[in-house]
Amino acid sequence: MRGEAAIVIHGTARVLRPTFAALVAAEEELGPLFALVERASEGQLRLTEIAALFWHCLAERGATTRDDVGEAVMAAGLAAVSKPLRALLAQILQGRA
Protein backbone atom coordinates (compact mmCIF):
# COMPACT_ATOMS: atom_id res chain seq x y z
CA MET A 1 0.00 0.00 0.00
CA ARG A 2 1.25 3.50 -0.75
CA GLY A 3 2.97 5.06 2.23
CA GLU A 4 3.78 1.73 3.80
CA ALA A 5 7.29 0.46 4.24
CA ALA A 6 8.92 -2.49 5.94
CA ILE A 7 11.76 -3.28 8.29
CA VAL A 8 13.16 -6.70 9.16
CA ILE A 9 12.86 -7.53 12.86
CA HIS A 10 14.14 -10.91 14.05
CA GLY A 11 14.30 -12.15 10.45
CA THR A 12 10.72 -11.18 9.59
CA ALA A 13 9.68 -8.23 7.43
CA ARG A 14 7.31 -6.07 9.47
CA VAL A 15 4.99 -3.51 7.91
CA LEU A 16 5.37 0.13 8.86
CA ARG A 17 2.05 1.89 8.29
CA PRO A 18 1.89 5.63 9.00
CA THR A 19 -1.73 5.85 10.13
CA PHE A 20 -3.13 9.01 11.65
CA ALA A 21 -3.07 7.44 15.12
CA ALA A 22 0.52 6.27 14.68
CA LEU A 23 1.68 9.69 13.53
CA VAL A 24 -0.15 11.46 16.36
CA ALA A 25 1.57 9.15 18.87
CA ALA A 26 4.94 9.75 17.21
CA GLU A 27 4.35 13.51 17.25
CA GLU A 28 3.47 13.44 20.95
CA GLU A 29 6.81 11.80 21.67
CA LEU A 30 9.07 13.39 19.07
CA GLY A 31 7.57 16.84 18.65
CA PRO A 32 6.12 18.35 15.48
CA LEU A 33 6.40 16.05 12.47
CA PHE A 34 7.38 18.89 10.16
CA ALA A 35 10.37 19.58 12.42
CA LEU A 36 11.20 15.87 12.30
CA VAL A 37 11.18 15.99 8.49
CA GLU A 38 13.39 19.09 8.56
CA ARG A 39 15.89 17.40 10.88
CA ALA A 40 15.94 14.38 8.60
CA SER A 41 16.59 16.55 5.54
CA GLU A 42 19.49 18.17 7.37
CA GLY A 43 20.95 14.83 8.43
CA GLN A 44 20.16 15.61 12.07
CA LEU A 45 17.78 12.73 12.84
CA ARG A 46 18.86 10.60 15.79
CA LEU A 47 18.74 6.81 15.95
CA THR A 48 16.26 7.06 18.80
CA GLU A 49 13.96 9.18 16.63
CA ILE A 50 14.11 6.71 13.75
CA ALA A 51 13.39 3.80 16.08
CA ALA A 52 10.54 5.71 17.75
CA LEU A 53 8.93 6.60 14.41
CA PHE A 54 9.22 2.98 13.26
CA TRP A 55 7.82 1.73 16.59
CA HIS A 56 4.78 3.95 16.38
CA CYS A 57 4.20 2.99 12.74
CA LEU A 58 4.45 -0.79 13.23
CA ALA A 59 1.21 -2.17 11.79
CA GLU A 60 1.22 -5.06 14.25
CA ARG A 61 3.49 -5.08 17.27
CA GLY A 62 2.63 -8.45 18.73
CA ALA A 63 5.41 -9.30 21.17
CA THR A 64 7.86 -6.93 19.46
CA THR A 65 9.44 -4.53 21.92
CA ARG A 66 10.73 -1.08 21.25
CA ASP A 67 14.24 -2.39 21.90
CA ASP A 68 13.64 -4.97 19.15
CA VAL A 69 12.93 -2.13 16.74
CA GLY A 70 16.07 -0.28 17.81
CA GLU A 71 18.17 -3.42 17.43
CA ALA A 72 16.68 -3.99 13.97
CA VAL A 73 17.63 -0.46 12.96
CA MET A 74 21.18 -1.04 14.18
CA ALA A 75 21.40 -4.48 12.52
CA ALA A 76 20.23 -3.11 9.17
CA GLY A 77 22.38 0.01 9.33
CA LEU A 78 21.52 3.57 8.44
CA ALA A 79 21.85 3.05 4.70
CA ALA A 80 19.27 0.26 4.72
CA VAL A 81 16.77 1.98 7.02
CA SER A 82 16.92 5.17 4.98
CA LYS A 83 14.56 3.63 2.40
CA PRO A 84 11.66 2.90 4.79
CA LEU A 85 12.39 6.16 6.59
CA ARG A 86 12.07 8.11 3.32
CA ALA A 87 8.79 6.34 2.56
CA LEU A 88 7.35 7.32 5.95
CA LEU A 89 8.59 10.89 5.69
CA ALA A 90 7.15 11.20 2.18
CA GLN A 91 3.80 10.01 3.50
CA ILE A 92 3.93 12.64 6.24
CA LEU A 93 4.62 15.39 3.71
CA GLN A 94 2.50 14.28 0.76
CA GLY A 95 -0.33 12.25 2.25
CA ARG A 96 -2.16 9.68 0.18
CA ALA A 97 -2.95 10.47 -3.41
TrEMBL record:
Output the InterPro entries linked to this UniProt entry.
Phage_TAC_11
Q: Which Pfam families match?
A: Phage_TAC_11
Protein's name according to its UniProt entry: Gene transfer agent family protein
- Tell me which species this is from: Aurantiacibacter aquimixticola
